[in-house]
Specification:
Layout lengths: L10 E5 L3 H11 L5 E5 L2 H10 L2 E7 L7 H10 L7 E6 L5 H10 L3 E4 L4 H108 L4 H27 L7 E4 L1 H16 L3 E7 L6 E4 H17 L5 E11 L13 E9 L6 H5 L18 H11 L3 E7 L3 E9 L17 E3 L7 E5 L3 H13 L3 E5 L2 H11 L4 E5 L7 H11 L4 E6 L13 E3 L4 H12 L4 E3 L9
Parallel strand pairs: 1-2, 1-3, 3-4, 4-5, 7-9, 14-15, 14-16, 16-17, 17-18
Antiparallel strand pairs: 6-8, 9-10, 10-12, 11-12, 13-19
Helix pairs in contact: 3-4, 5-6, 5-11, 6-10, 7-8, 8-10, 12-13
Length: about 575
């Protein structure tokens, strides 16, 4: 039976010392289609076995050098031939003991002589097919093992990738959670500061009205009391107390970002150098102060006086953080909003980072988180209001910049004010520019003035100061009353109106008055600087104001002889 193309021929070794018998075996088996190998001795058979993958060995029992039993034993001792099929061919009659000996030597079957061709072919075919199936099974197992190994490797790679993905996902979730918590904390902080800002702005407005009434009344009272030194000292003391209250409200307004600012182009190194002597006197001899100004710094756009006050506050705070002495460094460098260390709230553009760094005690995390809260202070009673950093924070924000504080216990504190670079002097907006100061001389020409304020105390004080200056005053406590007086009285030279009034604001009143009398001159008196954008360049009189401030504004905006604007500043317009 010829082997089909699907079958692979196997090697069959014929071992016999008689060539005739080898030839007869070859003739019988050649129809199987297998590879037939012949050896005439045991030693030759061993050599062929080592060179080929022999599936079946037909061994003659009686051979001169090695008999069949000895050759079978030697073949089985080799690890490679443990499963090779050994068939004994014997021309003599074998006893049962001989057969047992043969099986022990590793034989799998016996074929007696004379050989029946069909029997020999059947036996060889069975073991050849068994060998082929065994090899196929081994290859299948090897292939399966390889596939299992590959699949296992794929699963391990997938598991590794999944673990990495899980780790990345956990890391991203953790990062997003931290970012969300940070953003939420910032939002809560912003809402808290906004609430405090609205509260302080409202308190400052009401407080300014009270101070307005006190200052106006005290100034008039001072002129009319007898020339008694003790009484004059008491009045002066009361005026100074009211002025200190006004300064306090200015700090509150600075924190609430509602103060009047006069932004101008400022050269930071010149400003710092100009303050060095003053700062040296403030900090004393135990603290060293140094400057580190980057060359070629661009100018900034900010209220110069407020920046000086902010810098003074920061240096005083630094000094107080070093009771045993230390060092303060004032530094400035040009920065951009896109840099990694820039505050997130900054708009795009160039800035100058002005920093005050000390070698003091530093702040813990809780103190640092509350550093800019108004009235929060770690100083003793009577040693600070807790408004210094709040004011600096408000100034930086209102100027279009930001404040950054970094500190560690025992490692000192660094406070940075990021100030927008000045593109050009004309970039200042009218809404940010406060009223210009003027040098005063006594007024000559009296005027008819309409004073509008819903606060009776403030209105009474303003009326008293104007009448003391020689003006004729008409008072109204609401916008509607003021419009009615404008119609009935007619001959009014100037209107001084409060901004925050019920039913009708000062701006709305001015608009309605000018619809009837476009040429009417007006002054807007306000306790804080947060005005709508349509306020434009209206003359403003910030509360609380002194009588001399009122006199200058009235003279300037009614054309009275005797009050001149400071040279180089624009005349106010009605």
């Amino acid at each position: 039976m010829l082997a089909t193309p699907a079958q692979e021929p196997v090697d069959i070794l014929l071992v016999d010392d008689q060539p005739a018998k080898l030839l007869s075996y070859e003739v019988i088996l050649e129809g199987l289609g297998e590879n037939l190998l012949k050896a005439s001795s045991g030693r030759e058979a061993l050599g062929i076995l080592l060179r080929h993958d022999v599936a079946i060995v037909l061994i003659d029992v009686q051979m001169p050098d090695l008999d069949g039993f000895e050759l079978a034993a030697m073949i089985r001792e080799h690890p490679r031939f443990q499963r090779t099929a050994l068939i004994f061919v014997s021309a003599i009659h074998l006893s049962d003991l001989d057969r047992i000996r043969g099986y022990e030597a590793g034989a799998v079957d016996y074929v007696p002589v004379p050989v029946v061709p069909e029997v020999l072919r059947a036996k060889v075919r069975v073991f050849a097919e068994l060998h082929r199936k065994t090899r196929q099974l081994e290859r299948l197992n090897a292939s399966l093992e390889q596939r299992v190994a590959e699949r296992t490797a794929e699963l391990e790679d997938s598991a590794r990738a999944l673990r990495q993905l899980n780790e990345d996902l956990e890391r991203r979730i953790d990062q997003r959670t931290r970012e969300r918590e940070h953003a939420l904390a910032q939002l809560l902080e912003a809402q808290k500061m906004e609430t405090i800002g609205h509260l302080t702005g409202g308190v400052a407005h009401d407080f300014n009205n009270l101070l307005m009434a006190m200052l106006g009344s005290l100034e008039i009272l001072k002129k009319r009391i007898p020339n008694d030194i003790a009484v004059q000292r008491l009045v002066d003391n009361a005026i100074k107390g009211a002025e200190r209250g006004a300064a306090l409200t200015q700090r509150l307004l600075a924190f609430a970002r509602r103060q009047e600012l006069r932004p101008a182009t400022v050269n930071v190194p010149d400003l710092v150098h100009g303050m060095k002597e003053l700062l040296g006197r403030v900090i004393g001899t135990d603290v060293r102060i140094s400057e580190e100004m980057a060359p070629g710094l661009p100018p900034v756009l900010i209220d110069e006086n407020q920046l000086e006050l902010a810098l003074l506050n920061l240096v005083v705070n630094a000094r107080d953080a070093m009771p045993d002495g230390g060092a303060i460094t004032l530094s400035a460098v040009a920065k951009d909003a896109t840099e990694a260390d820039a505050p997130r709230e900054l708009k795009s553009g160039g800035y100058v980072c002005l920093a005050v760094t000390d070698s003091g005690e530093g702040m813990d995390e809780d103190t640092l988180s509350r550093a800019i809260e108004p009235f929060f202070t770690t100083k003793g009673v009577g040693k600070g209001t807790g408004l210094g950093l709040s004011m600096v924070h408000g100034l930086a924000a209102q100027s279009g910049g930001a404040l950054m504080i970094s500190s560690r216990i025992g490692a000192g504190t660094r406070i940075e004010i990021w100030i927008p670079q000045a593109a050009a002097p004309e970039s200042m907006t009218a809404a940010m520019i406060g009223e210009t100061h003027f040098s005063a001389r006594p007024a000559i020409r009296p005027r008819r003035v309409l004073v509008v304020d819903d606060d009776v105390l403030v209105c009474t004080g303003t009326v008293a100061m104007l009448e003391d200056l020689g003006h004729t005053v008409i008072e109204a406590n609401s916008g509607a009353q003021a419009l009615a007086l404008l119609e009935s009285v007619g001959d009014i030279d100037l209107v001084i109106t409060d901004q925050l009034m019920p039913n009708m604001t000062g701006l709305e009143l001015i608009q309605r008055m000018r619809e009837r009398r476009p040429e009417l001159r007006v002054i807007l008196a306000t306790g804080y600087a947060e005005l709508p954008s349509d306020a434009g360049a209206l003359p403003r009189l910030p509360k609380p104001f002194r009588q001399e401030d009122l006199a200058r504004m009235v003279s300037m905006h009614t054309g009275s002889v005797g009050y001149d604007a400071t040279p180089g500043t624009p005349e106010g317009t009605a």
